[in-house]
Amino acid sequence: MEDPMKLTGLHVPLVTHFDADGNVDLVKVQEWTEIMLSNGVDGVVAVGTTGEAYALDLSERAEVAKAIVKQVAGRVPVLAGVGGMSTREAVAHAKIGKELGCDGLMVASPAYSVPTQDEIADHMKIVVDSAGLPAVLYDYPGRIGVSIEAQALDALADHPLIFGIKEASGDLSRIDILAKYKGRIDIVCGADVDSVTFLGAGATSWIAGAGNALPKAHLGIIDPATRDEAYAAVKPLLEYVESGRYIARTKALMTILGVPSAHTRGPLKPLEADAFEELHALVAKAGEWVPQLV
Is residue 38 packed enough to be buried (19+ CB in 10 Å), middle (13-18) or exposed (0-12)? Predict the structure, then answer.
C-alpha cells in the first residue's frame, strides 16, 4: 500500500447503499467497495459527503466504515470522513476512524456555526490530534459556509499529521493561494469539472465523488497520455452531475452502469425518470470512457 502521507491517483468517497426503506445495506457497501477496487481506484474515503455521512448516526457511521475497512483489507488507503457541527462531534468521528483501522482522515470544518479562521485552525488541530492519524483538510464552503483561508492554513501548515487539502470550493484562484504551502499542505483535487486545471497545476491526487460511477474516465483524466481524450468525453456528464443533486445523480449514474444504487436517505430524494433519460443520453455520448461497472 502507498504511504497515506502522500496520496496519489484516484481516491473515491464511497456512496452508502440504502434499501428501499432507507436502512443501510452493509452487504452492498462491501460489494460496492470490492467493485471499486476491481476498477483500479488508488484509495477510498469511508463515510464522506458522497457517502451521505451527515445522515448517519454514530453507530451507522461506525458500521459502514468497519465494513469498508474489512473489505479493503489493506489493499489501498482508507480515509475516514470527519464532519459534524461541533468539535466534540468531529472528535467522535475521528476516533471511529482510528478505532476501525482507517489509514487517515478527511476533515471538514464544522457546519452551521460559521467559525472564524482561528477557530477553524484550533478545531482541526484538536480533531487530528485526538486520532493521531494523517489528515487531509476538506475545503467545501458551499456546504460549510466558510472556507479554510490563509490565516488557518498558516497555523496548520507545519502540523506533522496534516498533509493535504481537498479543494472543492470551485474557486480556481485558490490554486495560486495554496501553492505557497506546497510540500507542507499539498493540493488534492476535489472538483470534477476543474480536474484538468488542478492536475495541470501539479495536484497528484483526486478525491472524486463521481469516481463512484466513472472510475475509468477519472483514471484516464489523471493519466497525461489520455487526459484530453477522457476529459472531452465526459465533461458534459461531469457538468451535469455537478450542476445540482450531486449524490442522487451519481447514484443514478451508477444504476445506469449496472450497479443499482438509486436509494438515498432523506432529505435527499432519488432521481426522477426524466433525469435518468438525460443521464442515459450523456452516457451514450461519452462512449468507451463510461463502461458498465461490473
Answer: exposed
